[in-house]
Amino acid sequence: MPQIEFINVSKEYEHGSVALDNVSFQIDPGEFVFVVGPSGAGKSTIVKLLIREEFPNSGQILVNDEDVSMIPQEHVHDYRRKIGVVFQDFKLLESRNIFENVAIALEVTDANDHEIKNVIPNVLNMVGLSSKMFMYPRQLSGGEKQRVSIARALAHEPDILVADEATGMIDPDSSDTVVEILEKVNSLGTTILMATHDQKIVDKLKKRVIRIETGKIVSDKKGGKYRG
Amino acid sequence: MLGTLIFVISGSQTALRYLEQQAQISIFFKDDFSEENILGFKSRLEEDGRIASVKYVSKNEAFEIFSQINKDEPVLLENISPSILPASLEVKALNIGDLRVLAEEFSQVDGVEEVRFFEDIIDRFKFWSNVIYIIGFVLVAVFSLISYSVIIATLRTTIHSKGIELEIMKLVGASNAYVKNPLVYQGVFLGFVSSFIAGVAMVMIGVIMKLYNMFDYGLTFGFLPRLYIQPLVFSLLLFVFLIFSGCLLGLLGSYTAVKRYLKY
């Protein structure tokens, strides 16, 4: 059974632009999938639909066989706890240190202090930032900030990790580090969906690549490359 | 503002109630209408549900009152005897609105010489009391609306300043309640603090009234007949009411702000 399934999904925004046009694909548990394409192709829309920040105009999005659009509003937070999200702009709170930035993911689940103190050092260790636990975001490089963002996404051990242009604002070396971490996470069983237009990374990893252009899937290849 | 207006409204209503209670109809009888007939008429009036009390003033009592009023004019008193003063009934109505109807009814009764009551003064006071009442409630409504808007604006600022924090909370799986409740509590707290300050001011007014023996008989409202509350107790009740209404206003304002500005 696929873990993520887009069935004839279309999304048109209010101003009339078509972001996705009858898109269908399946992702199995434990897969690492790149969604590639030029800016405005519809990559971020797939991410937004998957985390239910947006609703499709038509079609179905199934995650673990559950129709995402049909999840009652009062249960959306439970659904989101199963999906870790990493954004291009990191979305870190400048007023909180690294430990606190990651802890927020557990605080919202009403985890107790003991649990938070146990989990956070482990996830920060996984992304190689345990020594910078009490530093503030302004004291970190772009790559390090993105690793904090990944640590936060992993804090409640999600089944799926979605990364939207996670390497878009960091230097190539840091990008390699970020992707290595994502590979490590994937090797532990987490499904990874990474929207990117970073050709170097896609070509290097030789994972499944779904290419999307003007809202339509133009290719979907395992062991693929950015340009097919 | 709400507290002050309630005090002013209650004060004017109390004064009106006092005047109403003092308002009476004096029924003067013809000389040939016997005391027996007057007392019979009095008994019938006492059974009328519209009438609060009836007092008989005999010719002799009328003379005593007249003498008391004119005690500095002995020449006048020498020429007056009890027999030329009319006996009368002093009638107090339960409701001031019935005075005119009762007066008209009494004037039709055989043996009644004249019926008098001070309708104009009471009507005028009643009019101004109602004006205070209406203006007061309009002002309360306006200021409540302003307070409501201030709470919404304050929370809008909070929501905007916490924009990224709220967005992150949403993305990492915070429940609606987790995000919204602190904002709602903030609105309620704002309402509580402002109403508490106002409430303390009202209690101080109550204490001052107590110290200077103002409204000793108690304060009242037009819609609560026969209920008089001592100013200090009144101010304490007002304190509780203000706290309750302040918190309620905060709750409503914060719910509105959260619904309008928190895209969740």
UniProtKB/TrEMBL annotation, chain A:
Residues 4-228 form the ABC transporter domain. One of its GO terms (biological process) is cell division. InterPro entries: AAA+_ATPase, ABC_transporter-like_ATP-bd, ABC_transporter-like_CS, ABC_transpr_LolD-like, Cell_div_FtsE, P-loop_NTPase. GO terms for cellular component: plasma membrane. It holds the Pfam family ABC_tran. The keyword Ubl conjugation does not apply. SMART domains: AAA. Gene3D superfamilies: P-loop containing nucleotide triphosphate hydrolases. SUPFAM superfamilies: P-loop containing nucleoside triphosphate hydrolases (SSF52540). The keyword Membrane applies. It is a peripheral membrane protein. It comes from the Bacteria. It is found in: Cell membrane. Keywords: ATP-binding, Cell cycle, Cell division, Cell membrane, Membrane, Nucleotide-binding. GO terms for molecular function: ATP binding; ATP hydrolysis activity; transmembrane transporter activity. Homodimer. Forms a membrane-associated complex with FtsX. Part of the ABC transporter FtsEX involved in cellular division. Belongs to the ABC transporter superfamily. This is Cell division ATP-binding protein FtsE.
